[in-house]
Structures are given as structure tokens and as C-alpha cells.
Amino acid sequence: MAAGVDSDVFEQLLVAVDRFARERLIPAEKRVEEEDDIPEDIVSEMKDMGLFGLSTPEEYGGIGINVPQEARLIEALCYASLSFRSRIGTNVGIGSQGIVMDGTPEQKQSWLPAVASGDVIASFALTEPDNGSDAAGIRTAARRDGSDFVINGTKRYITNAVRAGVFTVFARTDPDKPGADGVSAFIVPADTPGITVAKPDKKLGQKGTKTSDVIFEDVRVPETAIIGGPDRINQGFRTAMKVLDRGRIHVGTMAVGQGQRMLDIATDYALERKQFGKPIGEHQLVQGLLADCQADLQAARALVRATADTFDREGKAILEASCTKYFCTEAAGRIADRALQIHGGAGYMAEYDIERLYRDIRLLRIYEGTSQIQQLVIARRTLADRMG
Ligand code: COS
After folding, report:
1. Most buried of 125, 315, 343, 388, CB within 10 angstroms?
2. How high is the pLDDT of residue 388?
């Protein structure tokens, strides 16, 4: 089991994050929605709390929580808008974990301290205009030129690209191998000549988060930029998948945090709002909606925690991570829908929080692998286990 941070220190951190989410972040949500950005004073408080380095090992300046601790802490943080989590999310998760998991000691020393402090934002560049779910089909090319590689291609929907100091970029180093086998992972500083980050995308929800296209035109990097060093050429797809496994547990946790928030909002509304002479929470059909939310939430939380324990114990949890991401994010979608329904007409109005949370939560079923990709992973592994 990964040690994680000392349990007393962790409990204190958990209390601090819980309070920060409720007292500092939730009151700032409307401002984030209007300004479509996270205020800088909140970003500096996040840095001071060490949130950018939550999962970075202590020896590289981070807090070094393990996955079971992450499952509790991210739930507390995600009681507030998911946009706050996104600001630290690529440093804690997909942007940095490739380096943490497979990087050389020199790569870790060069990048992780600045990632942990939040001085450098790390961004994960896998998805392309023509390759989203089919991640092994990526076409961005890294052509060898002596001891360098020259990268050309376009990445799409790259979270925190406009804020990035470094990208982990997945590119095809062997044009003769069409699938997963020809892909390598590179560490590419964002100021390398030839990189253009496009204007942030306009989105349905999660205002304050930033995604953009990133265009690579003759971007030259040394072979030592390959994650794990030159010998790990053509191993990048496996790095991406390992990063996404941990990321999928993280996204399941986010769904639980938001699920609790939406259930609390719906419960408060059911107690306040009166129809037919009594609070709507006393009507059995509304009780049915609340009960279904609570049951989904309890099941989702139990699954996230069980999967986090499996990942921690066994060092991987591919099937379980997909089940978790699939169940928890679909459950959050159902909770959002019922919570909005309990609000009636008010739920459709922007002045009520549930309208925003409903839009925000929708993305959880798409990013870091759609529900359909999770179904595919689950079914393939279930069949393979049976076939031996
Ligand atoms: N951990 C480690 N290795 C993994 C892995 C995992 N979770 N999943 C797959 N691999 C390995 C496989 O073992 C295989 O290696 P070997 O050939 O040595 O056995 C290799 O990677 C290729 O795997 P596979 O054949 O399963 O690849 P597919 O092209 O069929 O696709 C899916 C796999 C569809 C599951 C993958 O492309 C995927 O997850 N797509 C979604 C991408 C995604 O989440 N995008 C979001 C981007 S971030 S917002």
C-alpha cells in the first residue's frame, strides 16, 4: 500500500479543504460563472494550501497523498464547482502523472517541484480532431532527426493549455505501426518554438475551465524528452492508459462530491418549498426522487473507495476504474436530473445553483473516456477473464 501522507496530517488537510470548499469556493461560484475564470486570489490560496501538489511525491515537493486519500479529498473539494478542481486538476492528475509514473529521476527532478507548487501548469495532450475515443489512432507525428524528434500535429480540447508551462504530448514515433505500439509520450515545454495554443473553446458548462486546440508545427525536442528516456520509445500509449486509469477514479470521486452537493440542494429545497399545503418533501413522489439520489450516491461513494483501495493495493485497477468512472458519472447525471426536477420550474432558472450544476456535471460522462468507452473496457475484460 502506498504510504500516502500521515493520517493525522491528512485528516487536518481534509478538514481544511472541506472548509475551503464551503466557505471560500462556493461563495465565489457565481463570479467564476460570470468571469469565466478562477480569480487569482483563489489560485494563490490553492497554491498556499499545496493543492497543486496533492499527488506529487513528497521528495519532489508535493504532499504525496495516496489514491484512497485522493478519493476523500477530491470529494470534499468537489462539493464546490468543478471549475475550481480543474484549475489544479491537470497538475494533480493527467498532466503530471505520466512523469510521476514513468518519468526518469532527472525528468521528475526537472518538472515535479514546479508542478507541485503550481508555478508550472502541466497539461495532457492526447486527443486530436480525428481521434478521441480511438486514442491509439492518433496521427500527431514525431519524426526522428538525429538525436531529436520533430513534432507536427493538432491536439484538441486540451484542458489548461492556455495556462500550461509544460505539455505531456502523445505522438506517433513509428509511422509503420498504426496502433498503440507506435506512440511515444514526450515532455514538451510550452514555450518551445512552433507551439500555438488557440483561443479557449466555448462550452455548455464548467465556466472557468479552459480547453483549447494546441498546434505543433515543427516542434523540435531532444530524445531525452521521451517520458522514461529514449529506451521507452513507442511505450507512450501504455503511459497514457495508466494515467487515465488513475484519472478515472479521480473523476468518479468528482462525481460523488457534486452528487452530494446536488442532493443537499434538492433536500433543502424539498423542505422549504410548499405545495398542496405542506413541504414538497412530505409528498411521496418527491421522496422517491430523493431516495433514488441517496441510493445512487451511497453506491457511488462505496465504489470509488473500494476501487481506490484496490488501486493502492495492487498498483492497478483497470476494470474497477472503468466501472467506477462509468457508474459514478452516470449516477451523478441521474442525481442532477432528479435534483432539477424537485426544483420544478425554478430548477430551469439560472438564479438557482442546480441549473449550473446540471450543465457542469454533463461533461463527466464524456471526458477521460466516455461512458461507452468504459462499457467497452469493462465488457472486454469481463469476457477475457472468462476465456482465461
Ligand atoms: N493500462 C496499461 N496498459 C493498457 C491499458 C491500461 N489501462 N489499457 C490498454 N493497455 C495496453 C494494452 O495492454 C495493449 O498493450 P499490449 O499490446 O502490450 O497488450 C495496448 O495498451 C493497446 O491496448 P488495446 O488493444 O486495448 O487498445 P485499443 O486501441 O483497443 O483501445 C481503448 C483501448 C479504447 C480502451 C483506449 O483507446 C481508450 O481508453 N480510449 C479512450 C481515450 C480517452 O479516455 N480519452 C480521453 C482523453 S483525456 S480527457
Report:
1. 125
2. 76
